[in-house]
Amino acid sequence: MSALPSTACTMLLLLYLPAAMAQSRPIDQAWDRHQRNNSAMNDNAPLQTHPSVDLSELKREAEELAKLSQSLPPDIEALSKGLLPKDLNDKLKRIEKLSKKLRSQLVPPVN
Questions:
Q1: What spatial distance separates the first Cα and last Cα of the chain, rounded to whole Å?
Q2: Which residues does 21 contact at the CB level (< 8 Å), separation at least 6?
């Protein structure tokens, strides 16, 4: 008698397994398509900027961002000593603003 329930379970498993696998195929196909699109974009997509982007302005902003970023470690070190540099908040806000601006001008919008 105990073989009957296990046989019934095995039969149900064999009946539902193909249906469950068929449902996973669209996800697998979508994932494959996503990977192909990303690799194609990364491999041979030229850098696209907005038509009105001034490259000299971008370079100046990137240099300012780098300079501000390099000035942070001493400020963080001062924090560990209990001192709060008065311009730290302004530096962090400027870094955030510059990085957002650069990203919006250099990275094409994702649809």
A1: 59
A2: none
Pairwise CA distance, residues 108 & 41, whole Å: 11
How do the domains of the chain map onto residue ranges? 53-111
94 and 72 Cβ atoms separated by less than 8 Å: no
Q: CA–CA separation, 99 vs 65, rounded Å?
A: 7
Tell me the pLDDT tens digit for each residue of 46-101. 555 555 778 899 999 999 999 999 999 999 999 999 999 999 999 999 999 999 99
Copy the structure tokens of residue 65: 């961002």
CB 36 within 8 A of CB 52: no
Residue 108 DSSP code: P
Tokens of 93: 């806000």
